[in-house]
Amino acid sequence: MHHHPANTQCDCCQGQMTAAGMTIVREEAKFIPATMKRVQHIEHAYECRLCKKDTNQKAQIKRGKAPQGAIQRSIAGPTVLAKLIYDKFIQYLPLYRQVKEWERYGLLTNDKNLSNWVIRVAEDWLLPVYELMKQILTAKSILHVDETYAQIINRSDGKSGQSNAYNWVFRSVPSQGPIIVLFQSALSRGRSVLEEFTAGFKGTVICDGYSAYGNLPNITFANCWAHVRRYWLKADSKNGEIGVDYCDQLYRLEREFKHFSPSKRRKARQKYSKPIVEKFLKWVDESPFFGKNALATAADYTLNRVKELKAFLFDGRIEIDNNPAENAIRPNVIGRKNWLFSVSEAGAKANALCLSLAETAKANGIDFYQYLVKLITELPNLPIHQQPVILNDYLPWSKNIQATCAK
After folding, report:
1. Contacts of residue 132, Cβ cutoff 8 Å, sequence gap at least 6
2. Torsion angle, CA of 17/19/25/27, rounded to 10 degrees?
3. Which residues form the Transposase IS66 central domain (predicted)?
């Protein structure tokens, strides 16, 4: 903003003064609220008057074609739907709190409407992208897996809405192409969920020591050293400190190996990490840790998973811990405090779809809001079911998305 004197007439000679310079004295941020507009799509028809005069010939008519909306017979356009999903899954703003914000902009609605919009968009336009990413993910040979509890009020299994449901997360590793993060909503934490999702998958699953992770066909398991370290940290004693120190030695090496190629990392682990692992396991095995105290629990946890804890030594693509999956699931944990629960299983599934695209977009440097606008605007007008190959151009790492939606 420019500020001029109220009077530019000289007080001495009464002559008109001329500009002599300017000084920037401060800067301030100015917030310009968003505006809501009603956009009408009007199709115009044209006819040929010359043909119309000829009674033996039917007049030719051409009509403009309006693009299909994401939700038929709904006032919600792509930008509204994108902001709705963005605010819930990136800003962690629950739908009931969004209602008043939309009213401020002139869109009168309620949280049930907003919930239905999220479910419809997720099922119709986000699910096809999710399913393609799942095909790509399960064709890889290494997966991070983790799970956290959720809550669904209206459950199909007859259990109370107070019973725990779960959100599972599956994440690829950087050495096997673009990062993919997929969530799956489930009513249980049982092995059947993992079996269903990984059907056709052959390779290694990196996970914690939960018993559901085990004895699945064509799958080997690598366990998480971060969990081992936590158990020894809980054993608040001199021996607990020794256990933690062994783990810390491995982590110091991993920081050195971070940017190595998988083959070079495997060789380095064999040379430097393997002796530490062997020494640690020998120490645990020979130490008299008995009973139900924290020290005995740490020892049992470690010795019951020797094969799985050694897996990272033989494959440079395997991470030493499951932290990437735990980090990926954190937005669900944070959001859970604001969303509280899902009313229906359809809502929980929609949440999982939205979180999947949000976290995968984030991992690939994509602006999630812009990505949503593009998906919701363009996919309804493309033959994605007849020609599913089109969806390859809408994956977060595709040239199309990287060129138009990068941060």
Report:
1. 388, 391, 392, 395
2. 120
3. 73-349
Looking at residue 24, its pLDDT comes to 93
Specify the amino acid at residue 38: R
Residue 178 DSSP one-character state: S
* pLDDT reported for residue 289: 79
CA distances 147 to 191, 296, 300, 314, 321, Å, are 12, 26, 23, 26, 15
Q: What pLDDT was estimated at residue 305?
A: 92
Q: What element of type H or E holds 344?
A: strand 342-344
pLDDT at position 197: 87
C-alpha span between 370 and 114 (Å, rounded): 19
> CB-side exposure of 277: number of CA atoms within 13 Å?
25
Token couple for 184: 């799956």
Residue type, 372: L
pLDDT at residue 288, rounded to an integer: 84
At residue 160, the 3 state secondary structure works out as coil
What is the chain's alpha carbon radius of gyration, rounded to the nearest angstrom? Answer: 29
Eight-class DSSP state of 202: -
Q: How many residues does the chain have?
A: 407
Helix, strand or coil for residue 90?
A: coil
- The rounded distance, in Å, linking the Cα atoms of 38 and 106 is 10
The mean pLDDT values, 10 residues at a time, for the chain of 407 residues are 90 90 91 87 89 72 92 93 95 91 91 95 98 96 90 83 86 94 90 85 87 76 94 92 96 95 96 97 89 89 94 95 86 66 88 95 96 98 96 98 95
pTM: 0.89
- What is the per-residue pLDDT for 190? 81
Q: For residues 339 and 388, give the distance between their C-alpha atoms in angstroms, rounded to a whole number.
A: 33
Token digits of residue 54: 């000829």
Q: Which residues contact 90 (CB under 8 A, 6 or more apart)?
A: 358, 368, 369
Q: Residues 351-386, buried b or exposed e (16+ Cβ, 10 A)?
A: bbbbbbbbbbbbbbebbbbbbbbbbbbbbbeeebee
